[in-house]
Amino acid sequence: MSFDSIGISPALISALAAQNITVPTPIQEQAIPAILAKKDVLGIAQTGSGKTASYVLPILMDLEGKNTGGGREINALVLVPTRELALQVDEVFTSLGTSLRYHVKSKAVYGGVSINPQMMSMHNINVLVATPGRLLELYRSKAVKFNNINTLVIDEADKMLNLGFKEELDRILSLLPKIKQNLLFSATLSPDVQNIERLHLQNPIVITIAPVAQNMELISQIAYLVTEERKGPLLRYLIKTEEMKQVLIFTSSIYQADLVADKLRNNGINARAIHGKKSQGSRNESMITFKNGSLTALVATDLLARGIDIEFLPFVINYDLPRGPKDFIHRIGRTGRAENAGKAITFITIEDDHHFGVIQKKMKKQVEILESDGFKLHGY
Q1: Rounded CA separation 158/121 (Å)
Q2: Are the CB atoms for 134 and 115 separated by under 8 Å?
Q3: CA 337 – CA 219 distance, rounded (Å)
Q4: Nearest to 199 by CA among 257, 259, 229, 157
Q5: CA 6 to CA 26: how far, in whole Å?
Q6: Residues of the chain with CATH 3.40.50.300
């Protein structure tokens, strides 16, 4: 099945192809036609299954060429449990939306930072990606209005409820227009998630995608305990001493990806960053040069993990840990493919120790953690 066969526009198909994504995932195959048909959808699928694009693509198609009516009205609202996911979802909207002739403007808002800059930038937004608490703060401050919302997405509903957002979620739902399209995505169908579905989805199309096991046998894993300050020198040391000719490096943010790539280049290593803030032309060029072996290091955010599909990629390095075990498995799964062995290296700080323990437990694999203090990193 192709994206064309499920109704995606040529411009968005080109944007997907630039990220080396040419075939829809199972959740996309089923959810996209239903969403384009304006049906309510309940999607149960694991993290890394492609569910974000399954709602981003039809929302972009629906909003292309439309405006919010000006001011602080929005057309689509995506509720997520964490700042990290808010940024990631906004990055997907940005990276795919740049291909459209008429721009669709998205923005991520979340707590833990000053609200004032977010309030000041809430003008002519088509899609708002928000954590519940910060959204209510913006609403109470009259920085955002809900009258024109025609699509609501609740993403990772199970995590949202587990993190104690139920009361805030109920409050938000009571403020939104009654007539709208409702899309609910979750990794599990807990009783609380079922309760939201019963109360707010109208005759939904229910889609359940079984988790796919990742074969880890071909991936050799090792981790290094390192301070935050020594991560950069250790990265450059490993690339040079292990004579890496092709390495995919994952960071936790766009800012970090750019910073790591800059420092690699400054130290004589051919590197580029790839993320949603880069132009489509830049992303496409980076992917081509990396796949043909002309580029040594590609520094990426989780957004583009699935789109990087290389038959023999020898090295993956987790410069920063991802937010969840499935994201970790998805990252290192870029190597060890098509019967070719690969190596995955992970940097661990003292603060990461517990989180990495959880990842290993979920992965059902113990990873050897080595001290990096003995490496002489001066000059790297």
Answers
A1: 30
A2: yes
A3: 9
A4: 157
A5: 12
A6: 4-208, 219-371
**d(Cα 191, Cα 181) in Å, to the nearest integer?**
22
Task: State the pairing for strand pair 181-186/369-371.
Answer: unpaired
C-alpha closest to that of 112 among 130, 128, 125: 130
What CATH architecture is 4-208?
Answer: 3-Layer(aba) Sandwich (3.40)
280 within 8 A of 287, measured Cβ to Cβ: no
pTM value is 0.64
CA-wise closest residue to 91 among 112, 107, 111:
107
pLDDT digit string (tens) for the chain, length 380 residues: 899 999 999 999 998 988 878 899 999 999 999 999 999 999 998 766 788 999 999 999 999 866 655 678 999 999 998 887 888 899 899 889 887 877 788 999 998 789 999 999 998 899 999 999 999 999 999 999 999 999 999 998 888 887 788 899 999 999 999 999 999 998 888 777 787 777 678 888 999 987 655 556 778 999 999 999 999 999 999 999 999 999 999 998 889 999 999 999 999 999 999 886 777 578 778 888 988 889 999 999 876 555 566 667 899 999 999 888 878 887 888 787 656 778 999 999 999 999 999 999 988 889 999 999 989 998 88
* Cβ neighbours, 10 Å, residue 37: 12
Report yes or no: 367 and 361 within 8 Å, Cβ to Cβ: no
Tokens 């489509």 appear where?
A: 280
- Both tokens of residue 24? 């829809």
> What b/e readout covers 188-223, taking b as 16+ CB neighbours within 10 angstroms?
eeeebbeebbeebbeebbebebeeeeeebeebebeb
- Local structure of 176: helix, strand or coil: coil
Write down the CATH superfamily of domain 219-371.
Answer: P-loop containing nucleotide triphosphate hydrolases (3.40.50.300)
